[in-house]
User: Fold these one by one.
Assistant:
Number 1:
Amino acid sequence: MHKLILLLGLFFSNLLFANTADGEPNYTAIIMFVLFVGVTLFITYWASKKTHTAKSFYTAGGNITGLQNGLAISGDFMSAASFLGISGLVYLSGFDGLIYSIGFLIGWPIILLLIAEPLRNLGKYSFSDVVSFRLKQKPIRILAACGSLSTVILYLIAQMVGAGKLIEILFGLPYYSAVMIVGGLMISYVTFGGMLATTWVQIIKAVLLLSGATLMAFLVLYQFEFDFNQFFSKAVNIHSKGENIMAPGGLISDPVSAISLGLALMFGTAGLPHILMRFFTVPDAVEARKSVVYATGFIGYFYILTFIIGFGAIVLVSNNPEYLNDSGALIGNNNMAAIHLSHAVGGDILLGFISAVAFATILAVVSGLTLAGASAISHDLYANVFLTGKNNEKMEIKVSKFATIFLGVLAVFLGILFEEQNVAFMVGLAFAIAATTNFPILILSIYWKNLTTRGAVIGGSAGLFIAILLVILGPVVWVDIFGNNEAIFPYKYPALFSMVVTFVGIWFFSKTDKSKNSTAEKELFESQYFRSQTGVGIDKPNAH
Amino acid sequence: MQIRATKEIYQQLKEARIKILIPLILLTITSYFSFIWVIAFKPIFFGILIFDTNVSIGIFLGFLLILLIFLVTLTYVYLANKILEPLIKKIQNNA
């Protein structure tokens, strides 16, 4: 705790040097930061008094309402990468930003229609509970934990590097201390406050982000009297790509990539461990259902806002020398489009507000990820594989706290290690792995009677291996990072191929599985399906 | 008696759920992959401006798709609460 206070002291003294364009400290940003950090640490303190059991640590006691969970899910999903990244992509090439937005959103009906209710009815703390419901605990938990941890760590690295860069540009803080502050705060939220604190941090951040983005879009459209015709024609006139920004451009160059990216985005969302974990925080399937509608509404609305913000930046930022460097590019990089726009429409006050919101966003997302990673280590690997399910709740909580600290330190370390690397591909890889390993084993364990442990383990790990291999041999790593001339695997997005490997592998090795075990597993399917559909037999939430 | 009643209601529940799920899933997947299909094979089509405006077909349909995704989730929850939930409650009360 002392180290944390020291770190915070360093942070705030650094903040005093947070400058606006003309060299004055941005007081709005500083006040907002202090408020956000203060409020969230207070919540963490309050939550720590309620977080004594494993159930409260992983699921906030199961008492979160549908609306609260919907906001928290949107909080987990609307990362700084999607706020700044998508508006930056729209700024750069217009329509292409919409491809990502829709891809991220289309996973939600799938989650709602096929996964949310069975997940709530079968699981306790993590999606591995569902997958191992009738399959053999050990091998399947290890596989699910590998899938979860690789998704979480890749996502964490991308968020950490993004966070460090962003804070470096916004506040002039050195990269190292920026990454360490993020790491320190996230460790304290999660270890002391568990899921309860993490959920409230998400809720606050989601409300802040939605209001900030709404205000920005409103101020942009206000300048055009809410006339989209005028708005878009101005953007086409100004942008160097002209009317090409209204149509699909360079993001996707061939049909295979289009479908592969489409699959990864659609089914990857349904396999993200930190998102799936949220469904255990609500009391029952009814609330789980409700939370998806709220989440889809908020996230969809948010993507419409980012699109308007991206186009707003084309119109109001791209031709203003105040925001451009000597070569005519945006100061910082294209991801700073939304930040510059906030200054263009709302001056220093809005700039300070939006910068603080971007920081809050990063903190909230990394906390959610770390909690999901820690639960994979403590609940899946430690409690169910190492202890083979013997109940030792005290130790499990202890392990989960150590796992949180371990993951936090690892994230800081990797964030520093990858500072100079292009990490954009890591989010893509995280989605590909989620779509290739987590999603197929989850969906098949719920709906396919003939799934056996052998099939799930062989198919799931083969897919995981292929997804990683294809990314390494593909253009992003093999050419851009290793500096080779030509990629061995020509496509950027592996999901189409790796998902086929997983599904065919699972089907083949389940069908040919004649072991005694597999017969028992198939016999258990009916009762599992009954519970998944009706919720008969699930735990009651904690009393208030 | 109760077990038999449960079995019948469970059967009804499964049938009702499939009737709700299949059209919604088909709608979601076909609309999304048609969108992707156009991007892959006919990107120029999305660049055409809707007559008399400066809004392209692609942007208009993209916004419409976001709205559709939300409506799918809203429809499902409405139907699930109205049709499936009473059946589920009956089964839970019998158990």
Number 2:
Amino acid sequence: MQEAIAASDIHKRYDETVALDGLTFAVAEGSIFGLLGPNGAGKSTTVKVLTTLTTPDSGEAAVAGLDVLNQGAEVRRRIGVVAQASSVDEEATGRENLVLQGRLYGIRGRELDRKVDGLLERFGLADHGGRIAKGYSGGMKRRLDIAMGLIHDPKVLFLDEPTTGLDPEVRAQMWAEIRRLNAEDGLTILLTTHYLEEADQLAERLAFVDRGKVVVEGPPEQLKAELSGDTVAIEIGKSVNGRAVEALRGLAEVRELQALERAVHARVDDGAAALPALLAALSAAEVPVAAATVARPSLDDVYLRYTGRSFEQAEQAKEKNDDEGSDR
Amino acid sequence: MTATVLNSFDMTQRWMRALIRQPWWIAITLVQPIIWLLLFGALFKAVTEIPGFEAASYNDFLAPGVIVMASVFAAGWNGMGTLEDLQRGVMDRFLVTPVSRSPLIIGPIAQVSIVIVIQSLIMVGISLAVGAEFPGGVHGIAALFLATVLLAATLAAFSQAIALVTRQEETLIGIVQFVVLPLTFLSACFMQLDLAPGWIQDLAKFNPVNWTVEAGRDATSAAADWGFIFERIGLLAILAAFSIWVATRAFRSYQRSV
């Protein structure tokens, strides 16, 4: 199968901050690929490089078989881009937004009218096309963003955090739409997200990005299967963390142990069978247990395994680090 | 090439539509220069009594000056729209389409130019109403407008370039305020230059605002020197082309940092 996107050893830094540090991945034509990582991991920068918005310091990238650095104009004709934040012109109506977008691709006249009508209809905006977009809801703006990204029938669609900030119902609709774009329109879709569930639901393959690098890549099922057995997550008080690890380390059932801030995750072959022994060990060490859950491995566990910290921790650490709110 | 021209019209249409939807803004933009015209006309009336002042009435002298001043002010703020597009992600969306850079710069310039022509027509009307004369006739007024629009294009393009490079409202406001008033007062907008101190006369030689006022005032006078006027208009055209080129280059700086 041909590659619709190929990124190889991409480096990019902003002043002192390293945004991409040797990022490499490839996306097969006609697939949905998820780029997953906490805020600030480098997902948006990756999209900016691949869509020719910005240039990398080094590395190579090809989209739709064209070199991103030297054939930028040709690449731009073949890609649709939906940025992380809505990029709707709020002073214009939905229809005017779409018409201008079409004209920038050289589509005019009747063909443009037909496409605009079709997209307004498809994205549930037919009754709102004549309204100024300032009055649109978040979900409507998002749908208009995607409609604009599709006006020229692109081959490859970039969706940068398409559902961030949307309520669950709208998010579910968006997922259905993304699946339809891939299945019916045959679009290759690169999706970035910091929702593990979203990548799990939509992506045929995914790559975890951490600190500007791909740490692990593969189909979600395979990534989870590599972590054999179950995860027993035991919530405990912060102060007794060290004692809990000590108590569990020696047990025969425990294959792997991860200490988090207020919890310990133990990987075991059979969660239900191992649980009593784990709790008994903690009880003997006088560690009070707040809650214990047994689960099949999740993408969060995959992330934890490869980066040594939970997804949630990485998100929080990022938020603490940059309060300026700019996401790269 | 055709695509660039068509897209320039598309962008102009976008900016004009946004403008028309803000009637209060239009009203203020049009009323403000009228106030300047009437205010300065009244305040500086006695200037004509200074020995060596050539114009018979200050209103005759002032009209081209205020027309140019109003245009300088309007054009200086051109980068504010660019900033808004940058902040709202609209610019990034445009930059990943096949559109070339110049229509993105030309759209806001065309908008402000149209505003300036309308504004200037109103000021000519008001000037005529308060007794000013434009002996140079329609040709003269057309030359004044042309010079003014070229000057406005120059300043508007620089304003956009500053917006693209700094991406900060405060910085743009600071720079525009720092530049616009001195440019206006180091020119013959309000005062015959040979009555001004020597250093102002020297600086004014390099001031495009002064080139514009002198060309426009000469064109609207009874004895227009068209050689001089076309030379100035030519200079302004070169400057406008240069600054639009600079603004398109500013996208590179922006895209490196984004």
